[in-house]
Amino acid sequence: MSDNLLELAQNGSSLKNSPKEKVSVLEVVNDAVSKVNKLTKAKQIKIENKVKDIEVLGIKDRLTEVFVILLDNSIKYSRKKGKVEIASKQTGGKVEISITDHGMGISEKDLPHIFDRFYRSDESRSENGYGLGLSIAKKIVESHKGSISAASNSGKGTIFKIFLPIS
Predict the structure, then answer these.
(1) Which residues contact 34 (CB under 8 A, 6 or more apart)?
(2) Which of 160, 140, 161 has the alpha carbon at shortest distance from 64?
(3) Of 163, 166, 140, 131, which Cα lies nearest the Cα of 150?
(4) What Å distances lie between residue 125 and 8, 62, 122, 131, 156, CA to CA?
(5) Which end of the chain has the lower number of beta carbons within 10 A, N or C?
(6) What percentage of the chain reaches a pLDDT higher than 90?
(7) Which residues, 6+ apart, have CB-to-CB distance to 32 below 8 Å?
């Protein structure tokens, strides 16, 4: 994990004062998909990208990191030869980006805690990780005046939704 992400995990202050510019959500998602390509091939996961080209005000590298984190989780906890879907839609002055997997899902008792720093569910302990990824993703999204949520059915999959203001 990079020094920037460790600093972000500690307090997130570096993002609040960073200048933001117009960023294409489609470019950000495409970059993230290419960064997880090795993992998708290893698990034979198909990524279905239906993201529209909508611009938000943000820091491209940080937004890409959010989608790398979410895609990494979706792929890690998906069944081999599964599918991960990414879609977007514009609602009012915001863009909603959803990442849906059909993997093991998150239990009802764990769901409220998944964005807490260092939180790892019992089921996730078999995978490598520190319990920081989703916490970091949440901080990045919030620093862009957005929000992130998750819904899940244990054994059926998870949907992450990110809402960001359109530039």
Answers:
(1) none
(2) 140
(3) 163
(4) 23, 26, 6, 9, 19
(5) N
(6) 63
(7) 64, 66, 67, 68, 71
- Residue 160: pLDDT above 50? yes
Residue 77 has pLDDT above 90, yes or no: no
* Residue 72 in tokens: 């990494």
46 vs 85: CA distance, rounded Å: 8
CATH second-level architecture of 3-165?
A: 2-Layer Sandwich (3.30)
pTM given for the model = 0.86
* Per-residue b or e along 22-32, where b marks 16 or more CB atoms closer than 10 Å to that residue's CB: ebbbeebbbbb
In the block, tokens 């992450």 appear at: 160
